[in-house]
Structure formats: C-alpha cells, structure tokens
Amino acid sequence: MKLILAFCALVAFAECLRVPLIKGKTARQTLQEKGLWEEYRRKYPYSPLVKFQQTGLEPMTNDADLSYYGVISIGTPPQSFTVVFDSGSSNLWVPSVYCSSQACQNHDKFNPTSSSTFQSTNQALSIQYGTGSMTGYLGYDTVMVGGISVQNQIFGLSETEAPFMASMTADGILGLAYPSISSSGATPVFDNMMSQGLVTQDLFSVYLSSNGQQGSEVLFGEIDNSYYTGNIYWIPISSETYYQITMDSVSINGQAVACTGGCQAIIDTGTSLIVGPTSDINNINGWVGATVNQYGEATVNCNSIQSMPSVTFTLNSYQFTIPASSYVSQNSYGCMTGFGGSGDSLWILGDVFIRNYYTIFNRQTNSVGLAQLA
C-alpha cells in the first residue's frame, strides 16, 4: 500500500482513482467443482429481487454468478479486502475477526484492534440475504480505494454471515448506490469521496472486460475516452435510490417480446444476470431457443450460439443490443443464457448487459451514461 501511495504522488490525480477488477471464479463454479451445486440450488433458490425490497434493512441476495472483484483496504496500517463494487446497494461491509460463521473462515477479516484510526459505534447492522443474513456492527476508519484515502468512513464489521458467502471470492461488499437506501443511515463511500473533494467529477464509471481475468476497472470521478467509441447516451434516473431508469421495451428481430409499454429497470454491477418478470424472461428464452429447467436456468445448445438472435433493450428511445455471444455463458457443464426470471415487475440489467457498454453513473446529473465499447 505504501508503494501505491508513492506511485499516486507521482502521477496525475485521476490515475489514482482507478480500481482494477479481477474476473474471478464464481460461487457456482466453486460449488460445481465440489459437486455441491445441485444441493445448493435446491436449498437456496436464486432470489435476485430480495436485494431491492426495502424493509428498513440493507438487502442483498445470493448471486452465484458474480465474478468481478476489486481490492480496497481499511485501517492504519491498511488491511486489504476483496469486495464487489455494487451499484445496487449502499453500504460497505467486510468480515471481522469476531465473525464465528464458517463463511468467514476462508476470507480476510478486519481486526479493529490492529488499526490506530478505528472508532467503534454501538450501532448494529443487519443485511438480509436470500439465503440468510449478515449481522454485525458499524465502525469508522480510513478506507483506501484506488490509492485514495477516504477519511472517517462508516462501514460494517460482520459477526455472522450466510453460508453461501463461503463459496464467494469476495470478502465483502462496497455499495455505490444513493444514500437514501443505506442501512442505519451510513454514508456511502462514494458520497464521502464527493464531500471530501477526492473526485474531480461527481460520477464513477465501469468497464467490464469479457475476455480473460483482467482488464476491467471502476473509475471514480473519471470518464476514460479510450474505453468507448461514438456517443455517450444519457438516460435519466427515475428514482434516486438505486440507478433506476425507465426502459421502453425489449425486442428481438424488431418485435417487442418483453417490457411492452415500458417498465422500470436498475443498472446494477452487483447482479450478474439480466433479470425480469418470469413471464417476460420465459418469452425471451423461448425466442432464443433456450430450455428452462425447474430452477429457472435457461440452457441452450452450445453449437447454436452463432445462429441465435440478438436481444435489443430500448432505453430513453436509444437501442442497446446484446448479441448471443454476450448473453450466453459457456463452461464445462454446458451453455446457459444470462436471462433470469423473478416474481416482480422490476428489471435488473446486470453484468451480462454492462459488459457490452461502458457505463457511467453520474450523480451530478442523476443519469446513467452508456456508450459502445471501443
């Protein structure tokens, strides 16, 4: 970390506000390798909308396909953690040395007694999962993100964690959504970055690489012109909670197949799939030739990918098209589409969508910018 700080002193300010994201192994892959996936998905059905059901607590869900993670550090001297940079939630939390759950045993844990700048609170924190919950308490400390120091950042220290976290690469979550949905009124990391003058623009942007394990980045206060070509298309936020927007329709070969008449969608880096109402998702999967099993997983013939149609999402009258090569994932167990159903009218445009477009989350104008990748 000292090397990072020294480097930041020698380069342009904005260069220090970049956090490389690693495309790591997913929980699904880990469980499949151990022969536990069948048991896991029966016991813990995927429930993506749990994350967005506000109950006064900060909700998250068990997403077995998340694969993008970055490293931050907390405390003095710094203790490092791998986190999901999640635009669909607002709290920062990591495991603590006081966590007794099995899920904490294979993750890095924060030790508050080892940090000279840590300040504890008496406030409890509870985060609801589709498979259980994380409980713990809140504290304040210095948080290093991309080599930049965020002072007096409030964050959660877990004491118990849901079992599925044991199979995830990430130690914790760094939420990037609006403070209005933050549990316990905790100020999100990016809001402190803005108020402490650590970013030159009140925005952050995300580039997700689809090839290889490296190359992805989250950039704070910066738009990198080298990541995109053509125009940035700006879509206004319809609700200052998540990065929620109005979607006009979803179409295949020019025909509307879902979201007919318009619907609400959330641009979410912390969800792996494109999620929508089950009937709409089933229609899309039918159009692309997928077979849906009892767990809602849509499989296709791996030899058919080249002949499968693209799916177009119309947002603010702009069309954003996802080819089959992007919405189908392939591994040694077969090929699946990246479309998942839920029992709600809300859509989530997760990593399957974001991988195709340079995505800018603009807090100054309360809008999301999307641009074709270079």
Description:
By secondary structure, this protein is mainly beta. 14% of the residues lie in helices and 41% in strands. It has eight helices and 27 strands. Strands 13, 14, 15, 16, 17, 20, 21, 24 and 25 form a nine-stranded mixed beta sheet that branches. A hairpin with a 5-residue loop joins strand 18 and strand 19 (298-300). The longest helix has 10 residues, at 278-287. The radius of gyration is 20 Å and the shape is globular. Residues 1-15 and 55-60 have low confidence and may be disordered.
Q: How large is the count of helical segments?
A: 8
**What percentage of residues falls in helices of 4 or more residues?**
10-25%
Q: How many individual β-strands? A: 27
Report the C-alpha radius of gyration, rounded: 20 Å
Give the overall average pLDDT: 86
Distance between the termini: 32 Å
- The coarse silhouette is globular
Uncertain regions spanning at least 5 consecutive residues:
1-15, 55-60
Instruction: Give the DSSP E fraction (strand runs of 2 or more residues).
Output: 35-45%
